[in-house]
Design brief:
Elements lengths: L5 E6 L3 H11 L5 E7 L2 H11 L3 E4 L8 H10 L5 E6 L4 H9 L4 E4 L4 H12 L7 H9 L6 H5 L4 H11 L4 H8 L3 H15 L4 H10 L5
Parallel strand pairs: 1-2, 1-3, 3-4, 4-5
């Protein structure tokens, strides 16, 4: 059974926060807390050492903050999924962490069951974004690296992107790929987020510019 558990590392400079998180998570049948760290630098080292599935990471910490720790983990190509646990609600705090590679974020006053659900969700490969933060991510232009961002698209997202470039509506794309319109809408949202674009018109232009059009 232990092999099937989600291995979690806690990274927070407040011991009382780590203790509270550990106390709750240790009663979950499918989650195992494998270690703790009190700052970003230690968090990076412990992540490399313990190889957790999910890292719960604070943003504001001494020595190295959560954003820099995320960048280090990305440089190391560490596969752990990082869920930011923060008391800060400002987009200027959360957005840099998401851009640095976090799979999502929750607030420290989150309902315990919701936290467990968030851990399971990011472990399953999902990205947790509040609508207002998703909007901020899409509205901020990023120079360069356009083609590199395209590498993050799945094969299905590339198919959808090609049909967007052809001027197809969501309904037409759904019909062509034998999908529901809701699924197509989700794919379109993911494409916009991954390519850092504001709307499907920009997506169509991006597809033509980078040779992704059909």
């Amino acid at each position: 059974m232990a092999d099937n558990k989600i291995r979690v590392l806690l990274v927070d400079d407040h011991q009382v926060v780590r203790r509270g998180l550990r106390t709750f998570l240790e009663v979950q049948d499918d989650i195992e807390v494998v270690g703790e760290a009190s700052d970003g630098a230690e968090g990076v080292a412990r992540t490399e050492e313990l190889k957790p599935d999910v890292v719960l990471m604070d943003v504001k910490m001494p020595v190295m903050d959560g954003v820099e720790a995320l960048r280090k983990l990305r440089e190391l190509a560490n596969p752990a999924r990082v869920l930011i646990v923060t008391s800060f609600t400002e987009q200027r705090t959360v957005v840099p962490a998401l851009r640095a590679g976090a799979a999502g974020y929750v607030y420290k006053d989150v309902d315990p069951d919701a936290l467990a659900g968030a851990i399971r969700s990011v472990h399953a490969g999902h990205v947790l974004l509040q609508p207002e933060v998703a909007g901020a991510l899409l509205s901020q232009e990023e120079t360069g690296g356009g083609q590199g961002r395209g590498n993050s698209l799945t094969e299905r997202e590339r198919e959808v992107l090609g049909l967007i470039a052809d001027g197809r509506s969501n309904r037409e794309i759904a019909r062509a790929l034998v999908l529901s319109e809701k699924t197509v809408k989700t794919h379109v949202s993911n494409i916009l987020m991954k390519l850092d674009l504001a709307d499907r018109t920009q997506a169509a232009l991006w597809a033509v510019r980078h040779g992704a059009a059909g």
